[in-house]
Specification:
53 residues, mainly alpha, 1 helix
């Protein structure tokens, strides 16, 4: 019984590690998209000034 519980706990631990890695990866992707969005907003904000020239 203890061996079976240990196997389940080990499997759950590995699953949690995998999920944590996925979350870190997604967080990095979100941050990159936020940066990209901020850059695009700055470019869009500059358009009217360029059109007035």
């Amino acid at each position: 019984m203890k061996t079976q519980m240990a196997k389940v706990i080990d499997a759950q631990s590995k699953q949690l590690d995998t999920q944590s890695q996925e979350i870190r990866s997604q967080t990095k992707q979100i941050e990159a998209l936020r940066q990209e969005t901020a850059e695009m907003k700055a470019q869009i904000a500059a358009i009217p000034a360029k059109l007035d020239k």
